[in-house]
Amino acid sequence: MAYSPQAFEPLTFFDVMPRFRGSSETPRAYLERCLAVIADREPIVKAWVVLNLPGARKAADASTERHRQGRPISSIDGMPIGIKDLIETKDMPTGHGCGAFAGNNTRRDSAIVRALRDAGAVILGKTVTTEMGGGRGKTHLQRTAGRPPQSDCGRVRELIQVLRPGSPAAAVRHQ
Asked: Is 8 inside a domain boundary?
């Protein structure tokens, strides 16, 4: 599918969430649609360091079951979320956008990731960051060729409209 900014319709969680309650949509089906967009756009956008597809699918299935029973945990139960590669997750490495931390796996969740999981969010993967989160500093060029560091949030937003803890997108979406 060819991307056009004028024709792009984001797969926003807040638009689909009411359909979870009405049983016309499931968190797993929504996740699979998001993954299809990622598969199509990621070779160009290069927003993800790692995707945890088995973990995301397992979490989406659990959320689907909670919604079927009419007992979602929270208003974000089933929402796919990309975690910045500066924030620790127990099931993915945290590389800080830096070669020195390649493969660094602390095997623990940061407080915000734990809170998101406890609320039923679907942790999809880790998103690209500037090296050590240094703002306009050096960016890992293999993942972000031709893109300035400040476009990081825009790349993720282009793929799917999900909230990323600490991102400008989270603040803008709820204004």
From this structure: no
Q: Where are the beta strands (DSSP E) in the chain?
A: 48-51, 80-84, 122-127
Number of neighbouring beta carbons within 10 Å of residue 19: 14
Within a domain: 7:
no
State CA 174 to chain mean position distance. 17
Query: Residue 92 sits in which domain range?
Result: 13-173
Say how far apart CA 166 and CA 162 lie, in whole Å.
12
Distances in Å between the alpha carbon of 44 and those of 25, 58, 95, 143, 161? 29, 27, 21, 10, 17
How many Cβ atoms are within 10 Å of 149's Cβ, its own excluded? 18
Question: DSSP assignment, residue 4?
Answer: -
Per-residue model confidence as pLDDT tens digits over 42-77:
999 899 999 999 999 999 999 999 999 999 999 999
Do residues 42 and 48 lie in contact, with contact meaning Cβ atoms separated by under 8 Å? yes
Domains identified in the chain, total number: 1
Pairing outcome for strands 80-84 and 48-51: unpaired
Report pLDDT digits (tens) over 16-36: 888 888 778 999 999 999 999
Answer whether residue 47 is part of any domain: yes
